[in-house]
C-alpha cells in the first residue's frame, strides 16, 4: 500500500461520515503527527510505500473517526493561539472562539509595565492561562479547576510551553472568597444548557467531558454569578473581569453584571458573529 492508497482509503471509508475537505484535513493532520510531513510533502510521497507497522494504527484511527471521536483526542494534541496543547477526554478541546478572549486580554494589557496578577477559572487544558502567561511577560498567572485529571494535563501543558502557572484544585461553586486580589479574572465556564444538547454534534456529546460543558436549564448563569460575586471582592481597582459566554444569554449576563454593580460592561462577537465575550470592571 502507498501513501496515496491510504489517502484514498480514508476518502472511501469516511465518505458517509464527513465532507471531503474534512477527510483530507484528517489525513494531513495524521501524516503531520505520525510522519512529520506537511501537506505538500505528503503529496510528494504519494507513490512511496506506506509503512506496514503504521497500517494497523491508521485502520484503528479510521474506526475511531467513524465513531465521531474528535481527531484531537485521537492524536492527543491540538493547537491553540499558535501553541501546542495536550488534550485528553478529561479536558475540553480548546475552541477557536476562545482565542479571541485571549487576544482581548493581551490587547488590553500588552503595554502594561507593572506586574499583573491574573486568575483563570475553569482552566481545563490550561489553554487560556498558558497562552496569557506566554504573551504577557509581567503576568503572574494562577488557574483553578475542579477536575484533578484536567489539572494534570494543564500542568503538562505549562511545561510543554515553558511557562509558570500556579494550578489550584477547587470547586468554584463552593468557594466563598478568593485568597488574593487580581488585576484580571478570566473564565470560560460551563455554559451550554441541557436544552441546547439537541443542537450539538455527536463528536461533542459522546466524547467531551460533560462537567466542562453543561448547566441546568433553570440556572444557566450559575457559574457566572458565583464568579462575578467572587470577582467583586477580589478585583483590584480598575481590574478586569472577562467571560466567554453562551451566545443566547448575552442580555441576561449584562443584566446580572449590572445588578451586581459592574460597570463598562461590553459584549463582543466572535469570528462567527455570535455574542461570545463579555468584559466589565468593578469600581
Ligand atoms: C468550558 S470548560 C473550559 C476549559 C478551558 N478553559 C477552555 O477554554 O477550553 C469549563 C471548565 O470548568 C471546569 N469546572 C466545571 N465545574 C467547575 C467547578 N465547580 N469549579 C471549578 N471548575 C469547574 C471544568 O472541569 C472545565 O475544565
TrEMBL record:
The keyword S-adenosyl-L-methionine applies. Its EC number is 2.1.1.297. InterPro entries: DNA_methylase_N6_adenine_CS, HemK-like, N5-glutamine_MTase, PrmC_N, RF_methyltr_PrmC, SAM-dependent_MTases_sf, Small_mtfrase_dom. Residues 104-197 form the Methyltransferase small domain. S-adenosyl-L-methionine binds at residues 122-126, 145, 188. Keywords: Methyltransferase, S-adenosyl-L-methionine, Transferase. It catalyses: L-glutaminyl-[peptide chain release factor] + S-adenosyl-L-methionine = N(5)-methyl-L-glutaminyl-[peptide chain release factor] + S-adenosyl-L-homocysteine + H(+). Substrate binds at residues 188-191. It holds the Pfam family PrmC_N. Residues 13-76 form the Release factor glutamine methyltransferase N-terminal domain. One of its GO terms (molecular function) is nucleic acid binding. One of its GO terms (biological process) is methylation. HAMAP family: RF_methyltr_PrmC. NCBIfam families: hemK_fam (TIGR00536), RF_mod_PrmC (TIGR03534). Belongs to the protein N5-glutamine methyltransferase family. PrmC subfamily. Methylates the class 1 translation termination release factors RF1/PrfA and RF2/PrfB on the glutamine residue of the universally conserved GGQ motif. PANTHER family: HEMK METHYLTRANSFERASE, MTRF1L RELEASE FACTOR GLUTAMINE METHYLTRANSFERASE. This is Release factor glutamine methyltransferase. It comes from Patiriisocius marinus. The lineage of its organism: Bacteria, Pseudomonadati, Bacteroidota, Flavobacteriia, Flavobacteriales. The gene is prmC.
Amino acid at each position: 500500500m502507498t501513501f496515496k492508497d491510504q489517502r484514498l482509503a480514508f476518502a472511501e471509508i469516511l465518505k458517509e461520515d464527513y465532507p471531503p475537505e474534512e477527510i483530507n484535513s484528517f489525513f494531513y493532520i495524521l501524516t503531520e503527527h505520525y510522519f512529520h510531513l506537511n501537506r505538500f510533502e505528503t503529496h510528494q510521497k504519494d507513490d512511496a510505500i506506506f509503512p506496514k507497522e503504521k497500517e494497523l494504527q491508521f485502520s484503528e484511527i479510521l474506526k475511531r473517526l467513524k465513531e465521531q471521536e474528535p481527531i484531537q483526542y485521537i492524536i492527543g494534541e491540538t493547537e491553540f493561539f499558535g501553541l501546542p496543547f495536550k488534550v485528553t477526554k478529561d479536558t475540553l478541546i480548546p475552541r477557536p472562539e476562545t482565542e479571541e478572549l485571549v487576544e482581548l486580554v493581551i490587547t488590553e494589557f500588552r503595554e502594561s509595565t507593572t506586574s499583573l496578577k491574573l486568575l483563570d477559572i475553569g482552566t481545563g487544558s490550561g489553554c487560556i492561562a498558558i497562552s496569557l502567561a506566554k504573551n504577557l511577560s509581567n503576568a503572574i498567572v494562577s488557574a483553578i479547576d475542579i477536575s484533578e485529571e484536567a489539572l494534570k494535563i494543564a500542568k503538562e501543558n505549562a511545561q510543554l510551553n515553558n511557562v509558570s502557572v500556579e494550578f489550584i484544585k477547587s470547586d468554584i461553586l463552593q468557594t466563598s472568597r478568593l485568597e488574593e486580589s487580581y488585576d484580571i479574572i478570566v473564565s470560560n465556564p460551563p455554559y451550554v444548557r441541557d436544552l441546547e444538547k439537541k443542537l450539538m454534534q455527536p463528536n461533542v456529546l459522546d466524547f467531551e467531558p460533560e462537567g466542562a460543558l453543561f448547566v441546568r436549564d433553570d440556572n444557566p448563569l450559575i457559574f457566572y454569578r458565583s464568579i462575578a460575586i467572587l470577582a467583586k471582592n477580589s478585583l483590584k481597582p480598575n481590574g478586569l473581569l472577562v467571560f466567554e459566554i453562551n451566545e443566547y444569554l448575552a442580555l441576561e449576563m449584562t443584566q446580572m453584571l449590572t445588578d451586581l454593580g459592574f460597570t463598562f460592561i461590553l459584549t463582543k462577537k466572535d469570528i462567527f458573529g455570535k455574542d461570545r465575550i463579555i468584559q466589565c470592571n468593578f469600581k
